Amino acid sequence: MNFSGKKINLEVVTPARVIFAGAVDSLTADAEKGNMGIFPQHAPLLALLKPGFVKYSAEGVAGSFKTSDGFLEISRDKVRIIVESAEASK
Questions:
Q1: Are 67 and 88 a contacting pair, CB within 8 Å?
Q2: What's the CA gap between 83 and 90, in Å, rounded?
Q3: pTM for the complete prediction?
Q4: Cα-flanking dihedrals φ and ψ of residue 78, to 5°?
Q5: What SS3 class is residue 4?
Q6: Gap between the Cα atoms of 20 and 24, Å rounded
Q7: Residue 2 pLDDT more than 60?
Q8: Is the separation of the CB atoms in 28 and 54 below 8 Å?
Q9: Helix (H, G, I), strand (E, B), or coil: what is residue 60?
Q10: Alpha-carbon distance 57 to 24, whole Å?
């Protein structure tokens, strides 16, 4: 599949605030059933997250967040990650 030009709107949310909101090319997350790779046009999905990392790529630049357990929701062109805590990692 060619995902050229397609983006995923990623939101990383805690009870206190939105940690990250922006368009990314792809991401990975540590789900309860294993590591998930997510690209544009992914099928809708709801998954449990275990404590770990969410890593993303946007315009060739990589970033990541260390997260607590929580939920990951994929809808049409959006991924929402809802966790108790998240912090940018290096």
A1: no
A2: 19
A3: 0.90
A4: -135, 140
A5: coil
A6: 11
A7: no
A8: yes
A9: coil
A10: 6
Task: Kindly give the pairing relationship between strand 78-83 and strand 8-13.
Answer: parallel
- Reduce the DSSP state of residue 77 to 3 states and report it: coil
Q: Which residue has the tokens 């709801």?
A: 46
pLDDT band at 3 (very low <50, low <70, confident <90, very high): low
Binning pLDDT at 50, 70 and 90, where does residue 76 land?
A: confident
Residues 6+ apart with CB under 8 A from 27: 8, 10, 37, 38, 54, 55, 56, 57, 79
Cα 12 to its chain centre, rounded Å, is 7
Q: What is the pLDDT of residues 43-62, one digit of tens each?
A: 999 999 999 999 999 988 99
Half-sphere exposure of 33 (CA within 13 A, CB side): 7
CATH numbers and ranges of domains, the chain: 8-89 (2.60.15.10)
Q: Which two tokens stand for residue 74?
A: 């994929």
